[in-house]
Amino acid sequence: MKVLALTPWPIYPAQSGGTERCWNLLSRIGEVTVFSLDWNGQESQQRVGQVNLRVIPADPEAVAQARKLMASGIKTFDPMPMLTKSNLKNFTSAIEAFDPDLIILEHPWMLDLIGERPYILDSHNCETVNTGIQLGMGALEFPLVADLERRATQGAEHVVYCSEQDLANMRKAFPFTTPTTLIPNGCELPDVISTGEQLNLIFIGSQYGPNVQAAKNLISLAHLLPEYTIQILGSVCNALETEAPNVQLIGYVTDKQRDWYFQQAHAFINLTEQGSGTHLKIARALSYGLPVITTATGARGYQNLLVTSVMNTPDMVRAIRKNWHTHSQAAKEQAQHLNWDTLASKLRTVIGEL
Question: By the number of CB atoms within 10 A of the CB, which of 15, 220, 263, 295 ranks highest?
């Protein structure tokens, strides 16, 4: 069977939660070809393991159309493949030439480029809910995304979803009877895990609205946790300022540096208050044996996290210090079930049954 995965952006090397999910699942299912759309004119082709990766640039006409749409009020590139489909000739021609037996759609965005070919939808979250939260139900994108996600779920051979809440949101937004399989976000199990001895409270995120608010919530608690050091990693730091002496805005880190910070952490704090989908960074934190303190919103898709409100977080931080090793063991046990190898085997099963 010739399997082709379509991603709305390059996925290798993985540099975000979405690309990490794509790469870690697709690189473990056997022989597969991945076509990724690039709006910056980049073109490349390489083979990594059993994955044939091809980055295909959007046609100049599609880029020009996308710029006009952005100027007219569209705020995100998510629906652009749908809105510029008649001008994405490079991409559609590549699909025609490859002539796959089965397509894996990472997100629903590429749906209108595949014709009548059978496909699996890997839904990273409920995009309709996510768009409504991020941009508002009055945004130009909202009805476009809602229609696209409805058609993508109803027309798929199979829908893969990240959490039961995502599935419930999709079923509430639009009816569908497509078979489904839960494949949550996962992690790789590191060789070195935290000992909890350093009193570092860690958060990592991209410069994305819910992440920015989560980081600001954590910074606001710094004066209540003077004996702890708050370390914030990732591009989210571009939107942050603080004069708190116990807050470190680390910013961009390499994978090796990120792993070091997780190994030196005492707990992972995720104080997000809105959003959809599940947080891959929580799976990573669990893999290092870190207790995860989070809001109910941040806990979506996971079991047995330490759920609290923003204002009660300092009390929870000090409480886990008394029996840190018990919480760490619970984190490691949960991470065992989130191993990417285990999760990818579920996707292989779905493919094999089609």
Answer: 295
Domain boundaries, the chain: 3-186+340-352, 200-336
Q: How many CA atoms lie within 13 A of 90 on its CB side?
A: 19
Lookup: tokens for 158: 């199979």
Query: Is the whole-model pTM more than 0.70?
Result: yes
Q: Are 88 and 65 a contacting pair, CB within 8 Å?
A: no
CA atoms within 13 Å, Cβ hemisphere of 58: 27
Buried b (16+ CB within 10 A) or exposed e, 235-252: bbbeebebeeebbbbbee
Question: pLDDT tens track of the chain, all 354 residues?
Answer: 999 999 999 999 887 778 999 999 999 999 999 999 999 988 999 999 999 999 999 999 999 999 999 999 988 889 999 999 999 999 999 999 999 999 999 999 999 999 999 999 999 989 998 888 878 888 889 999 999 999 999 999 999 999 888 999 999 999 999 999 999 989 888 989 999 999 999 999 888 888 899 999 999 999 999 999 999 999 999 999 999 999 999 999 998 999 999 999 999 999 988 765 667 889 999 999 999 999 988 887 787 789 999 999 999 999 999 999 999 999 999 998 899 999 999 999 999 998
R_g (Cα) of the chain, nearest Å = 21
CATH class of the structural domain 200-336: alpha beta
Closest by CA to 283, choosing from 21, 63, 6, 15, is 21
200-336 shares the fold of 3-186+340-352: yes
| Homologous superfamily of domain range 3-186+340-352 | Glycogen Phosphorylase B; (3.40.50.2000)
Q: Cβ distance 250 to 232 under 8 Å?
A: yes
Give the number of other Cβ atoms within 10 Å of residue 89's Cβ.
13
